[in-house]
Amino acid sequence: MDEVREKKQEIRNDISTFFNSLSDETLQENTRIIENRLFEFANFLESKIVMLYVNAENEVATDAIVKRAFEFGKIVVLPAFDKTKASMRPMKVDHPEKDLIVGPRGILEPNPAKCKQVPLDCIDIAIVPGVAMDEKGGRIGSGDGYYDRIIPELPMTTRKVGLVFEGQLVPQVPMESHDKHVDIIITEKRVIYKI
Known about the structure:
Elements: H1 2-21, H2 24-40, H3 42-46, E1 49-51, H4 63-71, E2 75-82, E3 87-93, H5 96-99, E4 100-102, E5 108-110, E6 125-128, E7 132-133, E8 139-140, H6 146-150, E9 159-163, E10 184-186, E11 191-193
Parallel strand pairs: 1-2, 1-6, 6-9, 9-10
Antiparallel strand pairs: 2-3, 4-5, 7-8, 10-11
Enzyme class: ligase
GO biological process, one term: folic acid-containing compound biosynthetic process
Cofactor: Mg(2+)
C-alpha cells in the first residue's frame, strides 16, 4: 500500500515538473483545444446538468469552460468540499462571479448560503479533474479521495470525463481498491474512450 502511495506521489511530482516546463502560451493554447473538444463532444452537448470543477494546481484550467457552459444553456454544478467529513456536495451555481467563495482547499467553490445542492442522480455528465491519468481511465487526483468517493455514487448513465494534457498521461496509474476510473479522457490531441 505504501509503495503505491509513493509511486503516486512520484507521478504527482513528475506532473508538477511537466506543468512548470510549459510556457503560458502553450498552456493556454492546449487548454483552449481541450475546451473546444469538450464543447464538440456529443455527450456534453446533449447533457442538461453538467458537473464541472474549479481547477487546483496541475489540473486543466476550467474557468473558460464554466463560463462557456452557461452560454450553452447548461445547468452548472460545482463541488463544495467538506474537509472534516472528507466529502463533497454538488451544488448548482447560477452566477459564478457572485456564488463562489474560497473553500477549505484554497480554491473557489459554491457558497452554501447561495447555492442549492443537486442530487447526484440528476447529473448528466461529470467532468472530473486529474493530476494524471492512463488510457484505461485510471486517475490520480490531489490525494484527498473526494472524487473516488463520489464517482461510484453517480448513476451508471452519467458519463465521467477526465480532462488532462497529453503530458499528464502515464503508462499505468497505480490503483488502490478505493480508486475509481473515468469513462472518457479528453486531451489536446485526442478523445480516449475507455468504455
